[in-house]
Amino acid sequence: MSLFLQLTDEWQAELSHHRAVIDSIDERLHDEAINPDRAKIFRALEQPMSTCSVVIVGQDPYPNAEDACGLAFSLPAGHRGKVPPTLRNILQELEDDVGSASVKNGDLTPWTDQGVVLLNRILTTKSGESLAHKDWGWQNVTDAIVARLVRNNSIFILWGNFARDLSSVIPQSQRVESVHPSPLSAYRGFFGSRPFSTTNQRLRSVGRDPINW
């Protein structure tokens, strides 16, 4: 099955103008080992658009095959290795912000079940190498995804410059922003930023259900 046809019907319709880009990427993917697995590339878009209330924007998949699962920042269920430092900082801020959490061992799928889209701006990379596919055209596709979810009145959590580049197309009322949670910047404004409780406040203000983080 072609990569484009792995999208749900509604996302195929929404991204039809970007099919040529997706098909071009699809051809290039056959030539190298990639993360995540091919079947998980569009995993972040599996839930119906109407349920997408929050979008957390990441950069690109984890370079280690055992970590990459198609969801930004998340680890696969049953992961037994070390939690990557950035995710460890996210989980620390989560605990400090809202206390008990619904996620365990870095598997963030309990969030996606509630309408949280964990979207990397670049959806694939070469195994063992970060940002290997940054010039393949993925941003054209994911920018279109973001534009559609802006119209859905989703709340966007933007961490770091790569995600905050999208600020110009997202109304301020729909943005929760800070520096990136990586060890290089987490102490410069990520810790203490309270993105999870702030997002829930935004959701309640527009009559949407808060997330059980």
Q: What is the first-to-last residue Cα distance?
A: 35 Å
CATH H level, superfamily name? Uracil-DNA glycosylase-like domain
* CATH arch. level architecture: 3-Layer(aba) Sandwich
H/I helix tally: 7
> H/E order of the elements?
HHEEHHEEHEHEH
Number of strands: 6
Question: Which parts are unreliable, with pLDDT below 50 for 5 consecutive residues or more?
Answer: none
Strand order of the largest sheet: 3-2-5-6
Model description:
The strands form 2 sheets. The protein has a 4-stranded parallel beta sheet with strand order 3-2-5-6, sandwiched between helices. The radius of gyration is 16 Å and the shape is globular. With 213 residues, the chain is α/β, with parallel strands linked by helices. It contains 7 helices and 6 strands; from the N terminus they run ααββααββαβαβα. It has helices at residues 9-14, 19-29, 85-98, 109-112, 138-151, 160-164, 195-205; strands at residues 34-35, 54-58, 116-120, 125-126, 155-159, 175-178. Strand 5 (155-159), helix 6 (160-164) and strand 6 form a beta-alpha-beta unit. It has a single domain (4-205), classed as Uracil-DNA glycosylase-like domain (Uracil-DNA Glycosylase, subunit E, 3-Layer(aba) Sandwich), CATH 3.40.470.10.
